[in-house]
Specification:
The complex is a heterodimer. Chain A is 77% helix and 0% strand. By secondary structure, chain A is mainly α. Chain A folds into 2 domains: 120 residues, RNA polymerase sigma factor, region 2, helix turn helix motif (Rna Polymerase Sigma Factor, Chain: A, Orthogonal Bundle), CATH 1.10.1740.10; 79 residues, Orthogonal Bundle (Arc Repressor Mutant, subunit A), CATH 1.10.10. In chain A, helix 3 crosses helix 4, helix 4 crosses helix 9 and helix 7 packs across helix 10. About 15% of the residues of chain A have low confidence. Chain B has 3 domains: 47 residues, no CATH class; 82 residues, no CATH class; 130 residues, Leucine-rich Repeat Variant, CATH 1.25.10.10. In chain B, 57% of the residues lie in helices and 7% in strands. Chain B contains 13 helices and 3 strands, in the order αααααβββαααααααα. In chain B, strands 1-2-3 form a 3-stranded antiparallel sheet, with helices on one face. In chain B, helix 8 runs parallel beside helix 10. The chains are: A mainly alpha, B mainly alpha. At the A-B interface, helix 2, helix 3, helix 6, helix 7 and helix 8 of A face helix 1, helix 3, helix 4 and helix 12 of B.
């Protein structure tokens, strides 16, 4: 009970602290804005990295997201949490990048990215965890699984991919995902259901 | 409420993400026991999660990407702010050249006794009791202590007819601070010293002090930033030494590999390789990263150390 009270008190303190930071940033305090960025930038970069699948675009999405936040922070009216707001920007920017990619027919697969950047290690190698993959057989298996999952994820629509990413990899609750998408929890549930159906179907057939 | 199999299959998905509404689970369990189609869906969903579990360990963002992204964002914000401050200035007083300074001085002589010295960095040290308050349109000389420094001074407006001028800038005062290393404020000041591009001596001392007790993530991050981005080789070297005991942590390891691949000072690269090898024995993945990072290194010591490490990691 004490722990719960402590956590609740901490959350209240954090949210008050964040409100103060936002207000300071809105009045032009760059340091306050940077502190806000630091609170969320790891999550935003992870989202971008997963959604786009390569470093360059992930960095672009990261930059675009926080610059948009910087420019429109004065319009933030505390109607949602800052976390939801910044995620909403990040997801929109990520989707824009995915759409641009489709329009330009530049399907950047992990393989082609590696081919065009021979000086960089392949993403899947960068992602390989040192502990789990130290066993060569497991490493090979994990690599195959990773590649199949990447292929399976490509079968999802943008929204399905986004909801799956936010729920499965980022661990956000469906209610918040609905808010981020400017929609409802029910809609997020439906996208998640469709995504897992497609993934099951794809991964069963390969 | 009568649910069909599709509804139950929705619930199966929610069950695996721990989003099933309270009280639904017993009914779902009963249905799965009785319905072969939903039992199959349940098993299939469980298999899907098992497959994903095989791939979860390696999904962290590389630390060097986070550092690079933060740096790029900070640079862009600097650029925007710089542009914005120029944009706000009236066209007739935009450039703070010595000639402009003379013009300004002439105006000041008309109405105000303002003694200024402008350095190359556009820093003005007040040597007079009378000064214009940079933050205000009105002259409020008494509010600025004599030992203050005014920087980034800009002339917002000047009216030769009335002798009125409007200036804007930043006032800073000398600071003397006593505090413990454990205190947040002390560390924040040291972080500021570390970011002070104009003073490598202070940055070096700040790194030294922070290195003594890198007790939390923010200190580690500050040291990683110094190692990766500081222009001064001495600061980078001290930051590396401070991080040395954490060379087995993934983000510190990434920073060391980055230094090994990019630092143009051989001494720093040598310290980076030594730190990495001291703390990481027999690691095939690290061996691969080091091979990649040092493939074009012209230092024979570094290449030999990597070859030895690759040999023992096989």
């Amino acid at each position: 009970m004490e722990a719960i009270l402590k956590r609740t008190a901490q959350r209240v303190h954090d949210s008050e602290d964040e409100k103060l930071l936002i207000e300071q940033a809105q009045s032009g305090d760059r340091e306050a804005f940077e502190q806000l960025v630091r609170r969320h930038d790891r999550d935003i970069l992870r989202l971008a990295f997963h959604m786009l699948g390569n470093r360059e675009e992930a960095r672009e999405v990261f930059q675009e997201t926080f610059l948009k936040a910087y420019r429109s922070l004065n319009r933030f009216r505390f109607e949602s949490s800052f976390y939801t707001w910044i995620y909403r920007i990040a997801t929109n920017v990520s989707l824009d990048h995915l759409r641009k990619r489709q329009t330009l027919k530049e399907e950047i697969s992990y393989e082609s990215y590696t081919e065009s950047h021979p000086d960089r290690p392949a993403l899947k190698d960068t992602l390989a965890a040192t502990t789990y993959y130290s066993n060569p057989e497991r490493r090979l298996y994990g690599k195959e699984v990773g590649e199949k999952i990447q292929d399976a994820l490509k079968t999802l629509s943008e929204k399905e991919r986004l909801v799956f990413e936010l729920r499965h990899y980022q661990g956000l609750r469906l209610k918040m995902i609905g808010e981020i998408m400017g929609s409802t929890e029910e809609t997020a549930k439906n996208y998640l259901f469709r995504a897992t159906q497609k993934l099951r179907s794809y991964l069963t057939n390969v | 409420m009568n649910l069909n199999c599709r509804d139950y299959q929705h619930q199966i998905t929610l069950f695996f993400y721990e989003e099933l509404p309270e009280g639904i689970r017993p009914e779902l369990e009963v249905h799965i026991r009785e319905c072969s189609e939903c039992k199959e869906a349940f098993d299939s969903e469980r298999a899907l999660h098992s497959v994903f579990a095989e791939d979860t360990t390696g999904w962290d963002v590389p630390s060097d990407l986070l550092v690079e992204s933060r740096k790029a964002l900070a640079d862009e914000l600097d650029r925007i702010e710089k542009k914005r401050s120029w944009w706000r200035m009236p066209a007739f007083s935009v450039v703070f050249t010595p000639m402009r300074l003379l013009e300004s001085a002439a105006l000041v002589a008309m109405g105000l006794a303002l003694g200024v010295y402008v350095s190359n960095q556009q820093v003005v040290r007040l040597n007079s009791a009378v000064a214009a308050n940079p933050a205000s349109v009105e002259s409020q000389s008494s509010t600025i202590p004599g030992n203050s420094t005014v920087s980034n001074l800009q002339i917002i407006s000047a009216d030769p007819a009335t002798g009125q001028v409007e200036l804007a800038g930043e006032v800073s005062q000398p600071l003397r601070f006593h505090g413990k290393m454990e205190d947040d404020l002390t560390r924040q000041l040291l972080f500021s010293a570390l970011r002070d591009a104009s003073n490598p001596g202070s940055r070096l001392k700040a790194v030294d002090l922070l290195s003594q007790k890198p007790t939390d993530e923010s200190v580690e991050e500050a040291l990683i930033n110094a190692l990766v981005f500081d222009d001064d080789a001495g600061v980078r070297m001290r930051a590396l030494e401070g991080l040395r005991k954490f060379a087995d942590e993934q983000h510190v390891q990434a920073a060391f590999v980055h230094a090994l691949q990019n630092d143009n000072i051989a001494g720093i690269r040598i310290q980076a390789i030594n730190a990495l090898l001291d703390r990481n024995a027999k690691d095939p993945d690290l061996a691969q990263k080091l091979t990649e990072a040092t493939k074009s290194d012209d230092n024979p010591y570094i290449r030999t150390k990597v070859l030895q490490f690759v040999g023992t990691s096989r």
